[in-house]
Each structure stands twice: as structure tokens, then as C-alpha cells.
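User: quick one, fold this
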Amino acid sequence: MASLKSSYEKTTLLDFSDKIQMRLEETELFRQARCIALYNAIPGEVQTAGLLEKWFDKKQLLLPLVVGNDLRLLPYKGLDTLKPGAFGILEPIDPKTTVPETDIDLIIVPGVAFDRQLNRMGRGKGYYDRLLSTLQVPKIGICFDFQLQDMIPIEPFDKKMDMIITEKEVITG
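Assistant:
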């Protein structure tokens, strides 16, 4: 995946990210959701800064904070309320403000690869699998089309997505 990713210009990946964002915004799951858990993208992932800035004053958006081996979801209140955290990823500054998991309507998940059976391959640390095992909400994986495979290896603890969105298509169960 890394070599595939590096074969694309950064501007092309940004263009793909914009298309994925538009497809996501068109889904009923996104439109109906009042509280959405997102992620702050690292280089090479589907970029989410545009979504964060466009929607944080219209919907409640949550971002992950790495705490030990787990992710906590905290409200996003604007770019000036973030600081570099674990792995250099921008995280919310105020860990005291929490949102009950029952308030979350949707989670948008990154991944290294996905497949047409809605499986997700993460980075191997299990952060998202642990988080997803505690949430009873629809899960949308977003990735570039070249990250979507016919089949990927999975582990028993890997959590399936309910939908996968690329710049070219939307896959549902």
C-alpha cells in the first residue's frame, strides 16, 4: 500500500479526498447523524480537515485522543483547540470534556486497506478495533480506491465496516 500511495502526487490524493468527502456527505448516515466521530488524517490517509472545518459548527464532531493503548473520543471545537499528540497526530487539548458513547451516531474510520466484504486492515496496534468493539454505531471506512482490495487478511478481533467509501464508489453490506 505504501508504494502504491507514493506513486500518486499529493495533489491527486487531495483531489481524491475531496471526492470521498462529497460521497460521504451524500450518504443518509452522514446527513442524519448529529454526533460524528472522525479522525485527523496523517499524510497518505484520506484527508479530513475539510470535513472538520465545514461541519464542526453544524454537527458535534469528535476526534480521538490516544490514552495508553486506547482511543478516547473528545469534542472538536476548532483548529486552535488541537495539539500534536501520539504519533504527531493533532488531538483535542481538553481531555476533561467527554461525550457519552450513546450520543455518537456515526464513526468514520481510516485504514491501511479495506476489502469488498467490508473488512478493514489497520496499522496493527488495535486502537480502532478496541474502540469499535465498544461502540454500537454505524461504521464507515474511507479510503482511496487503490486501498480497496478484493480480499484482505483479517484477524478475529477485526471489526467490519457498515460502508466503505472511495473516490469511485460506495460499498455497502
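User: anything notable?
Assistant: The CA atoms of residues 42 and 88 lie 8 Å apart.
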